Amino acid sequence: MRYWIALVISISAFSVMTADTVFSWKDAKGIVHYGDSPPESAKARAVDLPELTVIENYDKLYKPVLTLEERGITKKEKVIYAKFSILAPKDKQAIRANDGDVTVMLSLKPKLLPEHTLSVFLDGKKMAEGDLRMVNLTNLNRGDHKVYAVINGKKGKQIRKGKEIVFTVIRR
Question: How far apart, in whole angstroms, are the C-alpha atoms of residue 172 and residue 9?
């Protein structure tokens, strides 16, 4: 009886040990496959996997964006963003962009309220609107360009306009 118990325990221990093993093998066409149960006809080898990255206290690292009411701001009070600027491009920067593509990056503190939007203007023309902090401007002509951003409230009412930045695109 002890023999059977030892056999059952060793078989179950072996199945637990191999349950988290990943194997790789090649099929008849030479394509590499991965899985936990390779076919018997294939020469499979165990693959060493890297350890999983676990972020502890993830829920405490990121706080949700609060609405005006949750921040305790009444409609009569003026919403003030302590910081609002264009991080890139820099003012008076020359940018080599042979394809004419330039990325505008915005900085904003506190975080944008859900009921507000951002607009990015290039040479007086609105290029993008939404809650994105990065806007890709494509196929710009060579030469000087002016860019600025605006924070919009409900119904498109302008809350704050950022400083205008001038940059130069250098193309071949």
Answer: 73
Q: Cβ atoms within 10 A of the Cβ of 25, count?
A: 16
Peptide bond into 114 cis (omega under 30): no
Domains of the chain: 2-47 (no CATH), 78-170 (2.60.40.10)
| Per-residue pLDDT reduced to its tens digit, 37-69 | 888 888 889 888 888 788 787 777 766 666 666
Predicted TM-score of the model (pTM): 0.55
